[in-house]
Amino acid sequence: MGNEPHYVWIWLALVKLGCTASLLNNNIRSKSLLHCFSCCEAKVLVAGADLQAAVEEVLPALKQQGIRVFILTEDCSVEGIESLCDKIQQASDQPLSPQLSANIDIKSPALYIFTSGTSGLPKAAIVSHEKLWMTSFVLSLVGVRSDDIIYIYLPLYHGGGFLMGLCGAIEKGITVVLRRKFSASQFWNDCRKYNVTIIQYIGEIMRYLCNTPKRDNDRDHKVRLALGNGIRADTWAEFLQRFGDIHICECYGSTEGNIGFINYVGKIGAVGKEHFIHKMGYSYALIRYDPEKEEPVKDSRGFCIRVPRGETGLLVSKIGERTPFSGYAKNEQQTEKKRLRNVFVKGDLYFNSGDLLKIDNEGFVFFQDRVGDTFRCIDKTT
Ligand SMILES: *[C@@H]1O[C@H](CO)[C@@H](O)[C@H](O)[C@H]1NC(C)=O
């Protein structure tokens, strides 16, 4: 499904039933679609009305696996695809039996969200209810108020739009303006029309907005906060100069990672600032990394070496009860690749972010480079 209201209702309904939802990219087709669908061992496919042709293409394979297929239409004449909208209309509004979700707890998987690597097929990051719940507080942390209106155009099948945007909005109880797809020419018109106060971004989007022809009404809007990641320092300055006094809140984190930073003070160029919350229960470090050998540098005893403040190092974050790493669905090999053992003492266990960062004396965090197989998942189709 693309970004549409049904996406939200269906997901909420699935959670109520105790189902785990695997959020598929609505642009993938045939082999990739089947791979992503199957790698979480999904049993049911629900598709938007506009995706019927894509579903029909993989229908024989789905039939073979005994998958039930629903499409969001009033009726459907294709054998093997059932319409869903008519059934929603007829469904009872009585409360569901709590028995249905009795086996779900905070550690249970709530979602699978796909992340890509530079090599190989997409991997499904397991997002537990705990992670979903914690991410939903980011909006509060950055000062979103109950009268704010958030504009969501980032795809709901990624963590940015779904976890931070949608779940954050649900947690705050704020109004969501949901757009199917990013449009540089319509962006500010939408913001004006719907009184948007909060926007989300990824680096390229901010550049696209700065590249649109200048207009007299560039500063005529109510947007006060932009939340996202990957904006370059030069774009950042240009954006503020052109579109006015918008607080840009650059964030660092990943769907599967167990550590995040927020640049809540708006210092240009930083992806985050260390916060007292980080001292409570989080244990992370920047360790020396050898880019030639593509591995951490070890000391004479075979342990990793913390870099001094102000120097670049690989971010690793201890895996523990409060900072879990759930890994990838049915993919122990990729999960293990993100685990680093015997980092500072024998037997310890860390999450390897694959990101080289620098933290200065004031605690500002700067992104430097990405190493190995990982890269930030930015959807080119937006
Ligand atoms: C936006 O705000 C203005 C002024 O407060 C109000 O008149 C208008 O109805 C609002 N628009 C929407 C779509 O809510």
From TrEMBL:
GO term, biological process aspect, one: long-chain fatty acid import into cell
Domain AMP-dependent synthetase/ligase: 1-268
InterPro entries: AMP-binding_CS (IPR020845), AMP-dep_synth/lig_dom (IPR000873), ANL_N_sf (IPR042099)
Domain of life where this protein originates: Eukaryota
Coiled-coil portions: none
SUPFAM superfamilies named in the record: Acetyl-CoA synthetase-like
PROSITE patterns assigned: AMP_BINDING (PS00455)
Catalytic activity: a very long-chain fatty acid + ATP + CoA = a very long-chain fatty acyl-CoA + AMP + diphosphate; tetracosanoate + ATP + CoA = tetracosanoyl-CoA + AMP + diphosphate
Signal peptide feature range: 1-21
UniProt xrefs under Pfam families: AMP-binding
GO molecular function: long-chain fatty acid transmembrane transporter activity; long-chain fatty acid-CoA ligase activity; nucleotide binding
Keywords for the protein's UniProt record, in alphabetical order: Ligase, Lipid metabolism, Membrane, Nucleotide-binding, Signal, Transmembrane, Transmembrane helix, Transport
A GO term from the CC aspect: endoplasmic reticulum membrane
Keyword presence, Repeat: no
Family assignment from sequence similarity: Belongs to the ATP-dependent AMP-binding enzyme family.
PANTHER family in the record: LONG-CHAIN FATTY ACID TRANSPORT PROTEIN (PTHR43107), LONG-CHAIN FATTY ACID TRANSPORT PROTEIN 2 (PTHR43107:SF4)
Record-given protein name: Long-chain-fatty-acid--CoA ligase
